[in-house]
Amino acid sequence: MNTDLRNFLQQNHSQLTWKERIQITANIMKSLFRIHTENVIHRDLHSGNILYSQLSQKFLISDLGFCGPVNKPSNSVYGNLPYIAPEVIAGSQTTFASDIYSIAMLMWEILSGQPPFMNYKHDYYLYQWYETKNCVRNSFRI
């Protein structure tokens, strides 16, 4: 693999068309779909774990170290804070939906060219912000 998504975007974002940005997103979503069809949760999706191959011209999900079966919950929270679903930070188990939350954060990065919450330190204060939003989010849970 030649680079990760974060570095690729830093070098190429201003030249990417909307069609290319959508294609990048589709490649990542297809990779996650393949992981989920094996009944596995990734648990650590972020732009450093999305690799680009110039040879195949595709983006693929890497770092499957925290992956695990859906029916075998993890006792810990892993990952890069801005990409972790608020309910997981608040103590809920990781699910397919928490991987989808990470995809949404990747979509933000692909479309804007900026990592999520880049103006915040990835520390206790960002965690507190998540907790506040989680209270609102849970009231609308379907």
Automatic annotation (TrEMBL):
Q: Listed GO molecular functions? A: ATP binding; protein kinase activity
- GO biological process terms held by the UniProt record: signal transduction
Organism for this UniProt entry: Glomus cerebriforme
Q: Signal peptide position in this chain?
A: none
User: Taking every annotated instance into account, which residue ranges of this chain make up the domain Protein kinase?
Assistant: 1-142
Name by which UniProt lists this protein: Kinase-like domain-containing protein
Keywords on record: Kinase, Transferase
PANTHER family listed in its UniProt record: SERINE-THREONINE PROTEIN KINASE
The UniProt entry, under InterPro entries, shows: Kinase-like_dom_sf, Prot_kinase_dom, Ser_Thr_protein_kinase
Task: Identify the Gene3D superfamilies for this entry.
Answer: Transferase(Phosphotransferase) domain 1 (1.10.510.10)
Any one Gene Ontology cellular component term annotated for this protein: cytoplasm
